[in-house]
Every structure is written in structure tokens, then in C-alpha cells.
Amino acid sequence: MMRKRARTSLNSPVVDVWKRELGELSSRNFAHRLAASEDLVLRLDILRKLDKHRGCVNSLSFNAAGDILVSGSDDRRIILWDWETGQIRLSFHSGHHNNVFQAKIMPYTEDRSIVTCAADGQVRHAQILECGVETKLLTRHHGRVHKLAIEPGSPHIFYTCGEDGLVQHIDLRTRTATSLFTCKPVPSQSYFSAVNLNAIAIDPRNPNLFAVGGSDQFARLYDIRTYRWDGSSEFDRPVDFFCPPHLVDDEHVGITGLAFSDQSELLVSYNDEFIYLFTKDIGLGPNSAFTSQVSTGSDAGDMTSDNDSDKRPSNVDDNVKDAPQAYKGHRNCETVKGVNFFGPKCEYVVSGSDCGRIFIWNKKGGELVRVMEADKHIVNCIESHPHATVLASSGIEHDIKMWIPKAIHRATLPTNIQKRRPKSRFWMHRMVSPEDLMLQLFSLQRQGTGPESSEEHSDAGRDLLQLLLTFDTNSEHNSNSDGSSDDHDDDEGRDATSADDCSV
Fold first, then answer.
1. Where is this region: Disordered (predicted)?
2. Which of 273, 289, 319 is nearest to 420 (CA)?
């Protein structure tokens, strides 16, 4: 019987250097394996803090080359950083009247075209000119707009989603916005008029596919090829749904972040729950009738009982055994947090947490490998560099922290990782407006409030009323940094930011 060869005591990067020198490892593979090395992840440390915003930093994004980091904040300004030196290349007012939630540089535009969205419901386009920066209103949502997604490799096309449930397609060549659909809840949750959307992501391997997620438990996948521009198609029907089996009937969770890997895997971050990785073969299918037919479980990966197998549709029965990979340890209940991949081939999963830390897991297997102190309050944004082992993070504090593998000693996991908090509905304060709750209550009242009303409607009404009564309309994060009101309007649809309003 052959014995297993003893594992070498040398670190993998050292072995890779030796193989490269002997010609057994190509330079490209060496660079990829080195960038994905756990040794580098364990040596991540703060290079510097970028501290010029006057509010929470809600958005971080690198340009394609990776030498510029663009940030957006509650102070409504956009800053382009030379993050390696810590210098500001450009700073300008976004034109928004409320907190900026996303700012991205359009590819192949020499970093002169930036699209933004914000809490005022506006989607804007900023063009960097020789004499200054010109910002224009492209479209609006009826509610906050948390995220936008750029079609991979396109300098013109991107998508937006908002708390009104609307998904829009925007082409900068014509400056027109096409309303694709309003995301509707599944039948068992029909007392809501729309799903308040918080996240949208495009599959980099197939840009025809994009996913959205929001105030319910389902990530929905759509195919733009099924849309007809004359509006005659029923495009609001997803081509696939994704949800962990034990959350299918849980109406108290929602999705705060989405990300696609370069292998078309979909990463979904839930409030008051975990992060899950879905491969395209474990979706629940395009039929939303699977709800209320999969038993809930007490933890991730719980399966349905054999007694319920005859109640499930065949697509659920086939896929329920293939539970998605879960990533645990962080807390996500106080804010709308993003989630991301890290590494040249998406070898790691990264997320912020309510405890002010950054969590890094191995994508394969879900093992927690690193926890880093990053904010005194909450970490919301983690952005991976497109080429190097570099991370940018931000949260409730007003600065941005740049992380590179420069620590002399390898870090170890802390022993005081805080446990998850009890389930809370504070997250819905970010996703549902008081006006929307009032509309839902009014709709339920019209369906019947007397003895003849159903128990389901009564329970739903009590839940909505309780949430409305506890709604925190004075949340610090949702208010303007200068205390001003967000009840502004842009009748012209255009703001020209002069050179005097920019700092270079």
C-alpha cells in the first residue's frame, strides 16, 4: 500500500518561484498563482487612508487600468484618486441632491465618462472636459437608486435599478433610458406592489444575462434577448430564480448585494443571513410557483423532509439537494452592503460587516481565512483591484482605506469574532419608504378589513403597520450630510459644473 507523499513545509509562493526559474511555470500562471496566494491575503495591511470626503463613502470603483479609484459619498461629490500616491486627480459635485450611492467610470472613454446614481432617484452622466466637468440628468426613479451595472466592454450601455422596482436600460449615444420592467413579487407576496431593488449585476461571460435582488428572498435572472423593444413581450418574467432552499418561504429576509464571477457564478448577500454562491445549474427555474412548497430550515443547507417530497414541483425536487455554498461569520442587518469576489480568478469572497470588519473567505469550501478591522462602525463597500492583490474599503467613516500585502507577519483569525445579532427589520429602513408602506396598508384595507378579511391579509397588515411605526425617518445615513432637504427638482435636467466647482 502506497503512502501519501508528505506535504512540503515550504510556502507555495516559494515553490512557485522555484518552478518559474526552472521553466516549469509560465510567467502568466506564476502571476495569477501569486496574486491568489493565501500568504498575500494574510499579509494585507493598510497602505494609506484617502480622507477628503465630508460624509459616508458609499461607492468605490477602479478604472480598467486600476490606477484610478473613483468614489462617491453622502457629501454628493465624486473624487478620482491616484490611490498609489494618495493624491486627488479630480473632485467635482455630482449634480445630485442627495447621497451618491454609485459612481463608475465607463470603459474605453479615457476615464472621462462617469455615470452615477443616488438617493434622490436620479441617474446622471458626468463628462470631464478641458474646462471643467459637465453633468447631465439621464433619467429618474421613483425612489432611491442604489446600484447600476455597466455592460462589460461597452462605453455606452448600462442598467439601473431602484427602490421603485424599475429596471432601466440606458444608452449614452442617444441619452435615452428605456424602462424594461418593474420587478413584481411572487404570488405569495402579492400584497407588495413591487420588489424594492438594491442590486444589479451583469454576467461577464454572457452580457445578455443580468440579475437583480432586493427586498425579498429571490435573486432573479433575466435575458435581454427576450425583450422586444416595441414592448410586446412579457420581459418581466425571469429566466431563473435563485434562493437557498431554507429561505424560500422566509419573507423577512432580503438581498443587499450581488456579484458575478468570471465563471458565471452568482454571489448573493442576504440581510440577517449569510452570503451564498449559486452556480447556474442550481437555480429554481423560471416558474415562481415553487414558493411555499419548500420547507424552511434552521440553518443554511437544510433540506426538505421526505414527507414533503410529493408536494414539490419537479424542478425544486431536482435542485434542492444542490444547496449553494454559504459564507458565514459576518453581520449584515444595519445597512445595504455589497459583496464581491477577490483574486485573479475570483478565488475569494469578500464582504463588510456591521462590526466594522472585512471578512475574506475561500470561495471553494467557504472557509474563513481573514478578518480585518476596517471601520469604527460599519463596512459597506469592498472593491477589488482589477489586476493586483489590492482592496479598497469604505463605510460609515468618511475615509477610504487601501489594503495591500505589506505586513511582515501573517495574520491570524481573531478569537473575538462577534456572533450574529438577532433578526432585525432595521434593514428595511434602507429599502422601503414610509410612502410605500402607506400604499401597501391602503391596498390591504381596500381588500377588506372586517371579519371577512383573510388571516393572511390581517397578518400582513399588522407587519406593515408595525414597520411603519418603527420607521426611522431621521436615519443619519439617509439624511444629507449638511442637513438639507432632498426635496429638490432639476427642471432643466442638466447641470454644468464649472471649473471653479472642481478641485484638481
1. 293-320, 472-504
2. 273
pLDDT in tens, 385-427: 998 899 999 998 899 999 999 989 888 888 777 544 444 443 4
Give phi and psi for 90, each to the nearest 5. -160, 140
Q: How many CB atoms lie within 10 A of CB 174?
A: 9
Is the Cβ–Cβ distance between 355 and 348 less than 8 Å? Answer: no
Q: What is the pLDDT of residue 299?
A: 42
Residue 414 or residue 470, greater confidence: 414
What is the secondary structure of 11-63 as a DSSP string?
-HHHHHHHHHHTTSS-HHHHHHHHHT-HHHHTTEEEEEEE---SS-EEEEEE-
Q: For residue 469, give the C-alpha cell.
A: 411605526
153: which residues sit within 8 A by CB, 6+ positions away? 107, 108, 207
Q: Among all chains, which residue has been given the C-alpha cell 427642471?
A: 491
pTM of the model: 0.76
What are the grid coordinates assigned to 155, written together?
462605453
Q: Cα 9 vs. chain centroid, distance in angstroms?
A: 39
From residue 92, alpha-carbon distances to 4, 7, 175 in Å are 61, 55, 22
- Contacts of residue 10, Cβ cutoff 8 Å, sequence gap at least 6: none
Give the number of other Cβ atoms within 10 Å of residue 288's Cβ: 18
The DSSP result for 5-24, as a single string, is: PPPPSS-HHHHHHHHHHTTS
The answer to whether the CB of 370 falls within 8 A of the CB of 413 is yes
Q: What is the DSSP letter of 320?
A: T
Task: Check: CB of residue 347 under 8 Å from CB of residue 376.
Answer: no
Pairwise CA distance, residues 30 & 52, whole Å: 37
Dihedral, CA of residue 71, residue 73, residue 77 and residue 78, to nearest 10 = 10
pLDDT of 252 strictly over 60: yes
Handedness of CA 353, 340, 478, 87 (dihedral sign): positive
Give CB contacts under 8 A, 24+ apart, made by 287-290: 287/313, 287/315, 288/186, 288/187, 288/218, 288/241, 289/187, 289/313, 290/241, 290/248, 290/315, 290/316
Please give the helix or strand (H or E) that residue 223 lies within, else none: strand 219-223
For residues 155 and 238, what is the distance between their CA atoms, to the nearest angstrom?
Answer: 26
Q: What grid cell was written down for 139?
A: 433619467
Measured CA distances, 248 to 294, 301, 323, 326 (Å): 7, 12, 12, 15
| Integer Cα distance of 209 and 240 in angstroms | 10
**How do beta strands 87-93 and 100-105 pair?**
unpaired
